[in-house]
Amino acid sequence: SEPEQARSAFEVGRAHLLLGDARRAEEEARAGLALLDDQAVLDTCNGRLLLGDALAAQSDITRALETYKWAAQMLGMMTAA
Asked: Whole-structure pTM over 0.85, yes or no?
């Protein structure tokens, strides 16, 4: 399914991030996020966190912070429900 493919892309992205390839990690995060719809909020948050990590590793702090804030807001709404 598409959510499973997205989760796999996120894990591949994490592996690339650990190996020092932040650009490839960003690509995997974006590819996984593209597979998800509005119903997959937790998976989308997971992908956004990876994207933030990849952006931060590339010294794109402004975009990383925006990405982290989005994920934090969504996770906060989920726990409030």
From this structure: yes
Output phi, psi for 76, to 5 deg: -65, -40
Q: Which helix (H) or strand (E) holds 7?
A: helix 2-18
First to last CA, the chain: 27
Do residues 32 and 7 make contact, with C-beta atoms less than 8 angstroms apart?
A: yes
pLDDT of 80 higher than 90: no
**In whole angstroms, what is the distance from residue 52 CA to residue 29 CA?**
9
pLDDT tens per residue, range 19-48: 999 999 999 999 999 999 988 999 999 999
The answer to whether the CB of 10 falls within 8 A of the CB of 32 is yes
